[in-house]
Each structure stands twice: as structure tokens, then as C-alpha cells.
Amino acid sequence: MSIIINGMPVAPPTDPRVSLLDHLRETLHLTGTKKGCNQGACGACTVLADGERILSCLALAVQYEGREITTIEGLAEGDALHPLQAAFIKHDGFQCGYCTPGQICSAIGMAAEAKRGVPSHVTGDLSGAFSMTREEVQERMSGNLCRCGAHNGIIDAIRGTLSADIDA
User: Fold this and answer.
1) pTM
2) What is the DSSP string of 38-106?
3) Is 42 in the same domain as 92?
4) Is the pLDDT of residue 117 over 50?
5) How far is CA 100 from CA 14, 32, 117, 149, in A?
6) Which of 75, 113, 121, 133 lies 20 to 30 Å (CA to CA) from residue 7?
7) Statement to judge: residues 101 and 124 lie in one domain
């Protein structure tokens, strides 16, 4: 069995102890996904597994056999950036850029969660009819750290790109 990574089947590692992050970076040379803390605390390694955000540093690659993994490299369609990637540029949602791939993958997963009506800690209306306020987005993205100061641009990019889709 294989793992589908960015639409392509790839063999899982022969060593079952290899993290998904290390398999992506070291074996497949997909270096967009970053190794930050390697403890699941910073979110730099966030990728999408069947559309849900996961921390690839905490996941064993063999756990994802038969599943679809999307990394930052798999979001663009040819030369056309994913709308969120373009929004990060427009809103200056990055400075050093280290956290950017994890932020973008996390935001895409977060938008899907919100669209399904999954509440956050700060969601006031638990009926599922909530708005993606600045506070709501900040709470939902709190697992992804930015150390260089691009936080406001990140939140603006996410709200500008995804809130219309979520609120609809």
C-alpha cells in the first residue's frame, strides 16, 4: 500500500518509526513542510491528511498508508497559487516565511472545520452559525506560532480569503 502525497502514490518508509515529517523532508525532498520544535508545539510541520490538519512531526508515516497527504507544495495548481497563498503575499502574512507553510495548511484545515460547524473555545453561538471574527480566527490558529511578527498579516490573509466561504 502507498501514501498519496500531493496526488501521487509514494511508498511508505521501510522503518515504521519514521515520522511523516521526516519522510516528507528527508526521503521525498518536500522541504516546504518545516521542522520547528519537533514536539507538536509550534505548528510549522502542519500538513493536511484527507483534508484535516495534522502535525506531521507527531505522526508516523506508516499510519497514513492509503490516505491522502497534502503539503504546501500540493496546494498550487501549476503556476496558479492557492488563494490563501496569494492572500499571504497581499497581506504581508510572512516575514521570515518559516511558519508560512504550516500556517497556510492549518488555515485550510481550520476553514473546513469551521464550515462543518466545529466550534472553538471562543465560539459564542454553538448552533454552528458563527462568524469568523478576528478573535475566532486567532483562537483557531493558536497552535501555529509566528515568531517574526507577521501575525496580523496572517490573520488578515485568512479572514480575507476564507471567511466568505465559511460564512456562506
Assistant:
1) 0.93
2) SSSSS-TTEEEETTEEEETTSSBGGGGTTSEEE-GGGTSBTTBPPHHHHHHHHTT--SS-SSHHHHHHH
3) no
4) yes
5) 30, 9, 25, 12
6) 113
7) yes
